[in-house]
Design goal:
Strand order of the largest sheet: 1-4-3-2-5-6
Largest sheet: 6 strands, parallel
CATH superfamily of the largest domain: HUPs
Strand content: 15-25%
Shape: globular
CATH class of the largest domain: Alpha Beta
Distance between the termini: 47 Å
Number of helices: 11
Structural class: alpha/beta
Amino acid sequence: MRTARRVAELREVLAPAPARRESIGLVPTMGALHDGHLSLIGRARERCDVVVVSLFVNPTQFDAGEDLAAYPRDEERDSALAAGAGADLLFAPAPDEVYPSGFATHVQVSGLTEVLEGASRGPEHFRGVTTVVAKLLNMVGPDIVFFGRKDAQQALVVTRMVRDLDFPVEVEVCPTVREPDGLALSSRNAYLRGDERQRALALSRALAAAERSVAAGERDGREVARHAHAVMERSGVEPEYVELVAPDTLAPVDTIEGETLVAVAARVGRARLIDNTTVRPR
């Protein structure tokens, strides 16, 4: 696997692919790779001739309460994992390669970014996500870009951006990968210490409680959220939010009549964790 650090080098390596009619897949990451990332790389390997993994800790999507400097970084480890999962090219640019001096352009998606993570982390968060993803799509020129369903709102926002700005790329959203006990894999799980790892299960258990509630016939969104909230509180975890929303618009759902996204977020120690599931009436 080759590593490129400059956009010019990246484009030079990928330039022959279109002439050879080779498809390009992109897996954007901020490093600290885990099995969730590796599943995305594996899916890209299945669908594409050339697999690019980007490794860039994007400073513009961190909010004021997060420590950018403390985000886990280990390029040697990540490079080995990406290569083992089937990546052909690692793009690992420096911050000034992505945001050169005088950078003054941003991409903003309205309507999907003001709720859930946008409400908790501020509008700058998704503006940072969409701007860096737009740049990566322009840099790499992939045929398919791969995201995980754990970040359901992010995937929806990127899909809308791609549609609205006519990027010639398919967005594939892949299933959440979990530990055997249900904890969704996340780079921020590395922050969990001692009993925090056990307490972090409150998120997946809350979602399971929501699923059981709907399966038992509950259709009132507020009651379903209340059941999930109670499970988290019993684990000593106070959620930032437990929301039931439409999966395509993120509009609040009062009565569950079709597929509904249940999204949760909470801080456990230093780690801010998110998770989600979908429920539907039988």
